[in-house]
C-alpha cells in the first residue's frame, strides 16, 4: 500500500516526499478510519484527502465553505489529471443536473460541495445513487461556536451523513487546535473513534516580525519598493483603513488592489482575480479576504493593524509561503490597534461569556506584540505545543536587527510639553506645538507662549507624531478613550522628566536589497503567465513558484530531469513539459549561464538524490567521455539532451578535469571564433553566435572559450 501511495503522490502531484503528517493521515483514511487532521495553513491538508480519493473505489465528497475556493481547487485538480467537479449555488439547474448525471456514471473522483447543499432533499436523493467512499470536511472548525468562523450549515453535516444508506469514512481537517474546537469537531461531526493527528504547527519557511511604533505607511512603501514583483497581502482592521492605504499605495505608483465587504460582489471578484492571476502585486484587505484564496506564491503578509486573536493572525499570516518558499509575516503594532479591537468586541451582540473569551484571546494577541522572547516559540506554545526550542533564529526577536538609540532628550521635550498643556489635548496639537506651527488654535490657547513651543522645530509634525505614538506603545504615555482622546503621561514618564531614566528607541538597521531572482526565473514566470492567460487559469495552478525556481536552478532540458523537479507530475509534464523544455533550452543557448548551475535536475525531494550526491551527474558524463563516446552517444545513454551533456563537460573542465576541446571545434573556424570573441567580448554567447557563420554551433563557441580561457 505504501508503495502505491508514494507512486500516486509522484504521478499526480509531482512530489516525491510527504510533508509532515501527511503520510499518517492518508494511511489512517485508507484504513477506513474516521480521521481528524489538524495542520497549519499551508501544511498540505488537501493532498491528505485528494490522494485517498484516487485510491478509494467510489467518489469523495469534499465539504468546503467557500465557493471561490472550490473553483480553484477543482481547476487545479483537473489540471493534475484528476477528474473532479463542484456543485454549489453558482450553477444553473442545467449544470447541476449535468454534473449529477456524470457523477452517477462515475466520472468524478472528487466532488466539492458547499455545506448548504446538504440541506437539499433533492441532492440527497441524487446522492443515493452514488457510491461515496469518503467525506472530507475542510475547515472543520466552522462547526464550532468556539472557532472564529462559525457556519451554522456545518451543523447539517451529521444529519446528512446519518441519512446515507452506507456510512463513508469521515475525515475532518482544520488549522485550529484549541481543545474546545477539537472536542466540538469530534462530537458535532460524530466522528467514530477517530485517528487524531496534530502535526507540528511550525511553518519553518515563514519569518515572523513585530514592528512597534513605526510610521506604518512609510514602512509599507519602503517594503514594497524592495519587494517589487512579489505577491503580498496587507491586512488592515477596517474598511476605511483599507481604502485609505489602497489609495495611498496607488498614488505612490504601486500595483495594488483592495478587498473588503463594502465592495460589490463584482468588484470583490475582480480584485481577487487580479491578485490570483498576478495582475496586481499586492492586495490591501480586511480579514474578509483570504479564506477563498489558495494562491501559493504569496511572499509576504503584512498586518497593518493587530488582529483580534492569535488564531486569526496565524491563519492570515500563514497565507504566505504556501509553496514552501520563503515567506515573511510582519505585524505593525500601533497604539490605536488595541482600542480598535476592544471597540469591535464591544460592538458585537455576544453573550458576556463569549465576550470575555474574546477579551482573553485579545490579551494573548497583545502579548505576542510585546513579548521579548522568540515569536515562533510564542506562537507554537499558544497552539499547545510543548518542548519548543527557546530560539528559532528566524524571527524578529531572535534575529534582532535593531540598534538602540537614546531618545531621552526628545522624550523629555514631549513629556514636558504635554504637562505644560495640562494633559488636555490630542496628539496632533501636542505635535504642532512642539513643531512651532503657526496655527490659529495654538495662538488662541496661547500655547505659542509656552517654553516648549517650537523646541522640536527641526522635525516634521509627522515625525513628532510617530515619536509620540512610539512613547504610547512603550507605555510612557496613554491616550484616553472617548470622542476626544487626549494624551497623558504615565508615572514612568515622570522618572524620565526627572532625569532618573533614559528612553531608548529600537531602530531597524537598513536591510540589504532583496536578492533579485534570476533572469531565467523571471522569463519562466512570464511564460507561465502567458500559458495561464491562454487557459484562463491562475498562474500558480500551472506551476508553483518553487517549481519554476527549481527549473531555473537546474535547467532541465529533457523528460527525465524535468520530472525530477518538485511539483511536476506526469499530467503536468504532458501538458506543459515540452514548452518549458524548449523555453529553457533556448534560454540556455542564448545566455551565458554559469555552467555550474546547469546540472541534471535533482530537486531536494529527488529519490536519486543520494546517488547523485555520491557521484555528481557531470562526473558520470565524464566517465562516458573518457570512454571515447560522442556527444550524441552520451546524450542517448544518459537520456539527457546534448545541451546538458555539453554543460557537464564545461563544468568538468572548470573543475580541472581534462577535456580535449579540439574534438568540438571545427579547425577551419577556430581562428575566426577567437577573433570574434576578442572583438565582441565573452559576456554573452548570442551576439558571438550571430556574428559567426550559421554552421558554427554554440558548443563550438563555448569550447573555444574554455580552450583559450576567455
Ligand atoms: P492547506 O490546505 O493545509 O493550507 P494546501 O493543501 O493548500 O495546504 O497545501 C499547501 C501547499 O503545499 C500547496 O502548494 C501544495 O501543493 C503543497 N504541498 C502539499 N503537499 C506537498 C508535498 N508532499 N510536498 C511538497 N509540497 C506539497
Please describe what this structure looks like.
There is one protein chain. The model is unreliable at 512-516 and 594-613 (pLDDT under 50). The protein is built from 32 helices and 17 strands. The protein is globular and about 95 Å long. It has five domains: 2-198, 3-Layer(aba) Sandwich (Rossmann fold); 206-400, Rossmann fold; 404-508, Arc Repressor Mutant, subunit A; 519-590, Orthogonal Bundle (DNA polymerase, domain 1), CATH 1.10.150; 617-708, no CATH class. The strands form four sheets. A seven-stranded parallel β-sheet has the order 3-4-2-5-6-1-7, with helices on both faces. It has a six-stranded parallel β-sheet with strand order 8-13-12-9-11-10. Helix 5 links the parallel strand 3 (84-87) and strand 4 (110-113). The chain is α/β, with parallel strands linked by helices and 710 residues long. Helix 1 crosses helix 3 (45-55) and helix 28 (631-638) packs across helix 29 (642-654). Adenosine-5'-diphosphate binds at residues 15, 18-19, 22, 39, 41-47, 294, 296, 322-324, 544.
